[in-house]
Amino acid sequence: MDYANRKRPPKRKPTSGKRGAKAQPQRQVPWAIVILAVVLVVALVGGLRFIAGGKDAADTQLPNEVITETPSISSGPTLEPMPEKPEERWQYIEELENLEVEVDVPEREVGPPKLMQCGSFRKRSDAERLRASIALQGLESQIYPSNNNTWFRVVLGPYETKRDAEAERHILQRARIHGCQIWNWNL
């Protein structure tokens, strides 16, 4: 069936209720659902009373007379005083307070010095520009020519540990100078 080219059904004019108006069917109350709801509510109330102890308001009556008798102490068994707190058998608490831990920390091996290269350029002017932006961050760098003065490397260092080199690399990254690499080089 072609739904795109199908004609729309003609619109019906609304009737004002005089002639030709259809009578609205009256809704009937679903009595089964109403009875079921009443039974469920009664069951819920009964269940809650059962849980609460099953006492109704009619069952609980206030006594008319107030009992003023004091219970007499019989000559039954006498109460013994509580025994004293026993002494602790464990001594680990005192041992832990006085314990001294000795840790043997090996000396950190210092490897070869680290250098950080931040760029390699064909033109010395580009290397000088990068060196100037590094100097604005308070760090000192050098330009090393290589391959018979055809390449110019911008290098920072030497650093004793990689941690020192990483700290300065983070300073450069905050200044948006990326691409610095840390190497184990000797110049």
Structural notes for this entry:
The chain has a domain at 114-183: Sporulation related repeat (Alpha-Beta Plaits). It is 29% helix and 13% strand. It is α+β, with helices and mostly antiparallel strands and 187 residues long. The model has no long low-confidence stretch (mean pLDDT 83). It is flat. Strands 2-3-1-4 form a four-stranded antiparallel beta sheet.
Write the layout of secondary structure elements.
Elements: H1 31-52, H2 92-98, E1 114-121, H3 124-135, E2 142-146, E3 151-159, H4 162-174, E4 181-183
Q: Flag low-confidence runs.
A: none
Q: Which sequence of SSEs, written as H and E, runs from N to C?
A: HHEHEEHE
Residue fraction in strands: 5-15%
CATH homology superfamily of the domain at 114-183: Sporulation related repeat
* Largest β-sheet summary: 4 strands, antiparallel
Which topology of the domain at 114-183 does CATH recognise?
Answer: Alpha-Beta Plaits
**Mean pLDDT score:** 83
Radius of gyration: 48 Å
CATH architecture of the domain at 114-183: 2-Layer Sandwich
Distance between the termini: 84 Å
Strand tally is: 4
What is the helical fraction, as a range of percent?
25-40%
Q: CATH class of the domain at 114-183, anyone?
A: Alpha Beta
The best one-word shape is: flat
Count of DSSP H/I helices: 4
Taking strands numbered 1, 2, ... along the chain, how are they ordered across the largest sheet?
2-3-1-4
Structural class: alpha+beta
Domain SPOR: 108-187
Transmembrane segments: 29-52
Protein name: Cell division protein FtsN
GO molecular function, one term: peptidoglycan binding
